[in-house]
Write a structure and sequence with these properties.
CAP_sf; signal; alpha+beta; Cysteine-rich secretory protein family protein; 4-stranded mixed β-sheet; Pathogenesis-related Protein p14a; 4 strands; disordered N terminus; 6 helices; CAP_dom; single chain
Length: 151
């Protein structure tokens, strides 16, 4: 039903010349199970870099290897419906933050910033790059994993 409504709204917008560019909604996780979650990953990366800049730290570059690893672990967590730190994470990166059952990427980052250990990871002056993976399942909502490394 949501897809039908979205299609109808888009068709009306094109017909009447309105913009169909969506803005990120902080109120609800904006993606359905199985959709491309790249936008959520980019949102988390932007938030982390914004927070770092606000604290006078350099922004982190994107590391595709860390992102692929993060995405894989997020998908594994979603499939198992259980989130834990990746036992291989410290072999791949210097730091790892994981989160589960937040309504949206913004809430996940806020949760990390309200946790001293996760906040320390985000604000580490030693981190040089990051990779982020997001997965979602129907049972509990979003699973988020972010890894950063001093690469």
């Amino acid at each position: 039903m949501k897809k039908i409504i979205a299609t109808a709204v888009a068709a009306l917008a094109v017909t009447f010349g309105a913009s169909t560019v969506a803005t990120p909604a902080a109120e609800a996780f904006p993606f359905a199970v199985g959709e491309n979650l790249t936008a959520a990953e980019a949102d988390i990366a932007d938030q982390i870099n914004g927070i770092r800049a606000a604290h006078g730290l350099h922004t982190l570059g994107w590391n595709q290897y860390l992102s692929d690893s993060s995405r894989s672990w997020s998908q594994t967590s979603a499939a198992r419906d259980h989130l834990a730190h990746d036992p291989m994470a410290l072999q791949l990166s210097d730091m790892e933050n994981v989160a589960v059952m937040y309504n949206n990427p913004r809430d996940a980052v806020n949760g990390w910033m309200n946790s001293p250990a996760h906040r320390d990871n985000i604000l580490s002056p030693y981190a040089k790059s990051m990779g982020i993976g997001v997965a979602k399942n129907a049972a509990t909502g979003g699973y988020f994993v972010t890894m950063r490394g001093a690469y």
